[in-house]
Write a structure and sequence with these properties.
The complex is a heterodimer of chains A (583) and B (153). Chain A has 583 residues and is of the alpha/beta class. Chain A contains 14 helices and 30 strands. Among the domains of chain A are: 106 residues, Immunoglobulins (Immunoglobulin-like, Sandwich), CATH 2.60.40.10; 202 residues, Alkaline Phosphatase, subunit A (3-Layer(aba) Sandwich); 98 residues, no CATH class. In chain A, helix 10 packs parallel to helix 12.
């Protein structure tokens, strides 16, 4: 029976993990699993690797689970496999009536060429985010911009394919997993291949870059985000779970990871359940646990800066909000959402600076991940101004890294989205155009001209988005919503809500009576409350040693390979291996 | 729908409230002090939320609080969760959904079977303040109304 992986995972379909065409870093750990579609006996199973005895290559005999989770089907499992020798590995698993086959590429790296790696994730940062951020932040006249975003001039650029095992559309979990493990995964999953195991924590694991670095080197690791620190993107640096929603466990996995700098929102999962505002279901106090482990602890911008400045600080936990932090447009200008309640939130630019300050004290180098997580969290509810202001913020944060790299040339910097959104700039909206209908105030072609945002301030932000000639920035994939053609000055847009518990998402009536508001019937399923991710390629830019691998179109797993190659985490030792590594 | 309506009449005419909140000029039964969701907590920081002085003063006393009944764990439960706004996703049904942080757990003398979830209601009973774990379900709550009865709004 041939293995048809393209059908996606059905409950009883046979499978081998890692999947066919997996690219595996030599010396990295992974769980090996074979799922047969029926009950089989040990004596009836044949397992070969490159035609020979599997046990010799895998290091041990996989354990047989006769009846996995009551499914009347057997599995083989062997955890923590390491393949040290680069090359092609073809695995064949046979049982009566079926034959499964996968081929893996185990690859080495070159020698270490980067001391530090900084990976910036603009979550959901689609091309329109970049263009709008450049227009607003740098200005444009007669067709030419007056400046570029900090990541615009990086010497290497590639389109990135973001699809996952199960779907052309990814979410932030499996897309981040591709960057942090080099293995594809499935929507909502982190650091595992999604198998038929019922327990979220029982799926075959793959090793994260944090684990590899901590196991093989004495480098420091930093994880920084303005979203909840247990959210998918930062979680991707450490987590192994079928469900990204297991945030309480992810907080624990952050603690156990031995990452040195951990900063973001999401304090609710660090507080014991006895504290009002906690989202934990146990009595663990992770703030205390981190402090007992020698971490400095900060809850405000000033505390962060003070802690980072102390020369003895090598471990820093910063929690600046119980949930997601607030974005730049609210913190600096509109003061909506939770800015009044949490007035001391740091900016991602300063978080990046503080993280680098602490991590660079480690003489062995560091791996730092910084996420501008709200670009996506604002694109989803079609709140483009908030999303674009955080794109400008990301440009400022990347500048901090570039300034560091200018003095530390052995630093690889990558800036990329994890996936994209369905947004585009189609022209301008000019309030002075005649007539009552807002759509006739949309200027296209020569009628678009240029918007009239005020010139950006010294931090790159125009001080008002409420201008009379603004960008016509629209999303192509939406639920039903009321298009107001205006910025959402009172708080983040909520495009659709449920009017009854079991009903569909409908256009949020709160916006119905705003002047010029028009119902726009959506094209997404009625179970969707916001816009969704798209399969469009992401745009990645890179600079520094190891960035030469970034060009053309690459699969997102290649980002992992670029980082581990730059760090020399599986260096070749013989001439024969050197020939193989030149691919 | 008919059977349900008859059941409700037989049990003393619980009226089915509409979805519109009608918190207007409702006066609490004598003895019970009215408290609103907005008054329950005085602050929210990175380190958690703090009960308001009013909440602490009313601990152990009869109170009346208006809100919305969230979808119950089971129809025969003797408790339900009271929320400030109607909850559209059932957190008991989906592990992805978080409960709002300011929920109040209501323990009834009878069962919740006859109540329409999603309707605005008033809950009258004894306020209990502080973290507690429900013995039967493991559900954790910060605030509870015990020996409660419910009135439609």
């Amino acid at each position: 029976m041939a293995l048809c992986l393209s059908l996606g995972s059905m409950v009883h379909a046979a499978a081998i993990y890692p999947i066919d065409r997996a690219a595996i870093l030599a010396g990295s750990k992974f769980d090996f699993k074979v799922e047969f579609d029926q009950v089989v006996q040990a004596q009836d199973i044949t397992l070969t690797v490159n035609g020979g005895d599997a046990k010799k290559i895998l290091g041990a005999t996989p354990k047989l689970i006769s009846n996995e989770d009551g499914l009347n089907a057997s599995s083989l499992i062997l955890r923590d496999v390491i393949l040290a020798k680069p090359g092609s590995y073809t695995l064949v698993a046979s049982a009566p009536g079926q034959r499964l086959e996968v081929t893996w590429e185990v690859y080495p790296t070159g020698p270490r060429k980067a001391k530090n790696v900084i990976l910036f994730i603009g979550d959901g940062m689609t091309i329109a985010n970049r263009t709008a951020a450049r227009i607003l932040s740098k200005g444009i006249k007669e067709g030419k911009y007056f400046g570029k975003l900090s990541f615009d001039d990086m010497p290497n650029m590639a389109l990135v394919g973001t699809s996952g095992v199960d779907s052309i559309i990814t979410d932030s979990a499996n897309s981040m997993s591709a960057y942090t493990t080099g293995h594809k995964s499935s929507v909502n999953a982190l650091g595992v291949y999604v198998s038929r195991a019922k327990d979220n924590f029982d799926h075959p694991k793959v090793e994260t870059i944090t684990e590899i670095v901590k196991r093989k080197t004495d480098m420091a690791v930093g994880i920084v985000s303005d979203a909840e620190i247990e959210d998918a993107t930062p979680a991707g640096m450490v987590a192994h779970t079928r469900r990204r929603s297991e945030k309480a466990v992810i907080a624990e996995q952050l603690f156990l990871s031995r990452a040195d700098v951990i900063m973001g929102g999401g304090s609710a999962y660090f507080l014991p359940q006895s504290v009002p505002g906690s989202k934990r279901k146990d009595s663990n106090n992770f703030i205390d646990l981190f402090k007992f482990d020698g971490f400095e602890f900060a809850t405000t911008d000033q505390e962060m800066k003070d802690a980072a400045a102390k020369p003895k600080t090598t471990k820093l936990l910063g929690l600046y909000h119980p949930e997601n932090m607030d974005g730049a447009l609210d913190r600096y200008f509109l003061h909506k959402n939770t800015v009044e309640q949490f007035p001391n939130q740091p900016d991602l630019t300063d978080m990046t600076r503080a993280a680098i300050q602490v991590l660079s004290r480690n003489k062995n180098g560091f791996v730092l991940m910084v996420e501008a997580g709200l670009i996506d969290k604002f694109n989803h509810p079609l709140d483009w101004e908030r999303s674009v202001y955080d794109t400008i913020m990301l440009s400022n944060a990347v500048q901090v890294a570039k300034d560091f790299a200018a003095k530390h040339h052995d630093t690889l910097i990558l800036v990329t989205p994890d996936h994209t959104h369905g947004a585009s700039i189609v022209g301008t909206i000019d309030d002075s155009k005649p007539g009552p209908d807002m759509r006739n105030k949309v200027g296209v072609y020569e009628d678009a001209g240029y918007p009239n945002y005020p010139a950006a301030n010294k931090d790159g932000y125009p001080e008002s988005v409420d201008v009379s000639k603004r960008l016509a920035f629209f999303y192509g994939n939406t639920p039903d919503y009321y298009e107001t053609y205006q910025p959402k000055l009172d708080g983040t847009f909520v495009p659709a809500i449920k009017l009854s518990k079991d009903g569909p998402y409908v256009a949020n009536p709160a916006y119905k009576d705003l002047p010029g508001a028009v119902l726009r019937v959506g094209n997404l399923p009625q179970s969707a409350d916001t816009g969704t991710h798209t399969a469009d390629d992401g745009l990645l830019t890179a600079m520094g040693p190891g960035s030469e691998r970034i060009h053309g179109f690459i699969d997102n797993t290649e980002v992992f390979r670029t980082m581990v190659d730059a760090l020399g985490l599986a260096p070749v030792s013989t001439k024969a291996d050197l020939r193989k590594s030149k691919k | 729908m008919r059977d349900g309506a008859l059941k409700r009449r037989a049990l003393g005419a619980w009226a089915l409230g509409g979805l519109a909140a009608a918190t207007g000029a409702w006066a609490a039964p004598s003895g019970a002090v009215k408290i609103t969701f907005a008054e329950l907590y005085k602050s929210r920081t990175v380190m958690g939320m703090a009960f308001s002085d009013r909440t602490l003063q009313l601990a152990g006393k009869p109170v009346a609080i208006a809100g919305y009944m969230a979808p119950p764990l089971k129809a025969e439960s003797n408790f339900f969760v009271l929320t400030r706004q109607p909850v559209s996703i059932c957190p008991f049904c989906s592990s992805d959904a978080d409960w709002p942080l300011d929920i109040v757990v209501v323990y009834l003398s009878g069962t919740v079977e006859t109540l329409q979830d999603g309707s605005p209601i008033n809950v009258i009973g004894t306020l209990q303040v502080g973290s507690s774990v429900d013995a039967a379900t493991g559900f954790v709550s910060q605030l509870r109304v015990a020996d409660a009865r419910v009135q439609p709004l």
